[in-house]
Amino acid sequence: MKNHSIQASLRVVLLATCFLIAQGSRASSVDLPGEIPSMVGAGVGSTTDYTGAKDRFVGVAPGIRYVTDGGRLFELYGPYAQFDFGGLTGLQYGPSVELRLGRSHVDDPVVSQVHDVHTTVEAGGFIGYEYDNQGAFPYRLRGSVTVVTNAGIVYPGARVSMNGSLWFPVRQRIFVGTGVGASWVSQGFNQVYYGVTEEDSARSGLPAFSPSGGLEQMTGWLAAIYQIDKHWFGGAMIYYQRLTGSAADSPIVTQRGNRNQVTYGVGVAYAFK
């Protein structure tokens, strides 16, 4: 059984139409332009078994974007969901919840001897600002900060992500988007997901490793959405993740995986409002 540690994950990648398979933080790193209507969709894509792995799997994830009559926005992309109490433009803020899948029953014969990580639910909130330019060259620019924790159920401490995105139309029916981001984590988070205890070392042969907290990763993505007709949209995306700091130095990554992580996917969505 493959492990679907979405970290960042599926933060994989279902972007309106697109797939968001992400290990925890991937999903919250991606957003959609405000003018996209309410929609429901699904996507398929490929990502690594867990953050830092080199083995891959193909998965399917749902996506929902719903704008209320009062202009509030609910979004669900794969394992990540948030509700915006602000506006579709200007100040945006609200609660966020994410299902972070664990690491267990992995295919790698060495990493399988390292302690299992249980699936958990993270909760917290976000705040951001979206600027809508309606000039000769229309675009939407958004920046946000998200803070989540699982209250010590699986890991102690918290995770903080900062993300920015730019969306613009290239033709009447085509939107193109790009974004960058970074995340910081507590020492307790890194110890659970990237640490190797003495017992782990004895079983697996990997050197013992006790990571510190700090900058965990930097991310970047490119996406495109095509409006097929009044109701149907199609999309595609590629998402890049580069582990840094203690996460990148973990022997789970340096000896058995890769600090460079790539996720890609395609999807379709139906607009109903």
Explain what this protein looks like in three dimensions.
The protein has helices at 187-194, 198-204, 245-249, 251-254, and strands spanning 13-14, 19-20, 39-48, 56-67, 73-77, 80-84, 90-100, 120-133, 139-149, 159-171, 174-185, 214-227, 232-243, 260-271. The protein is elongated. Mean pLDDT is 85; it is low at 1-28. It is 9% helix and 49% strand. By secondary structure, it is mainly β. A 12-stranded antiparallel β-barrel has the order 3-4-5-6-7-8-9-10-11-12-13-14. It has 4 helices and 14 strands. It has one domain (13-271): monomeric porin ompg (Porin, Beta Barrel), CATH 2.40.160. A hairpin with a 7-residue loop joins strand 3 and strand 4.
